[in-house]
Structure formats: structure tokens, C-alpha cells
Amino acid sequence: MIGGLAQHGHGREALNMFNHMLKEGVSPNHVALVSVLCACNHAGLVTEAKQYFSSMEESFGVEPKQEHYACMIDLLGRAGRLDEAMELVDNMPFEVTAPVWGCPPWCLKNS
């Protein structure tokens, strides 16, 4: 549900669904958190995305994967925050691949 709402431009509704999920005691996995970051991306919610991204491991026990980084880099780029996007690319804990440079995570078939 969160991913579908995010992909169809209903970012705030997706975040509301995510918050409802948390209130019900359901812990998100890495896929749900990619969807949350994508929702923030579609809604232009840079501050919220940065908060979710920076707290993923501590709050939810999910280590950021390439899909999370790709979504954050896409979001920062769309927001015109290219220096921040490049800083994130430079500090990723793994090799930079094509999806990070051009394809947002929701277009990856195997994520």
C-alpha cells in the first residue's frame, strides 16, 4: 500500500499509512522503508526523508541498502541539493552502480 501510494504521487498519504502501520506495532522491513523514502521523494519532503534515512538502523534495525541510498540521492538531486547528493554518493559504504546515477529505486525490477 505504501509503495503504491508513493508511486502514484500520494506521498503524504503513504506516510500516513506508514505511521498507522507503526502505531499498530508492525515493524517495517527494508522494502517498506524504500517506499517511505520514495513517498518523501514524490512529495518533496527532504527533511522528513533525511530523518527517516538517518534513523533507519537505530529506529527500525534496518541497515540502509543501495536502494535507500539511490532514493535519497534522487530526492536530493530533484530538490536541487546536488552537493548533498554528491556527498552521499561519496560516502556510500559500497560501490556506486548504475541505479544510483540514474534510475530511481522503484524502477528496479529486482529490488
TrEMBL record:
Q: Does the keyword rRNA processing apply?
A: no
Q: Please list the GO biological process terms of this entry.
A: RNA modification
Cite the entry's keywords alphabetically.
Answer: Repeat
- Per the record, the domain of life is Eukaryota
Q: Which InterPro entries match?
A: PPR_At4g14850-like_plant, PPR_rpt, TPR-like_helical_dom_sf
Whether Repeat counts among this entry's keywords is yes
GO terms for MF: RNA binding
Q: Which Pfam families match?
A: PPR_1 (PF12854), PPR_2 (PF13041)
Repeats (PPR): which ranges? 1-28, 65-99
Q: Which NCBIfam families does the UniProt entry name for this protein?
A: PPR
| UniProt-recorded name of the protein | Pentatricopeptide repeat-containing protein
**Native species of this protein?**
Stephania yunnanensis
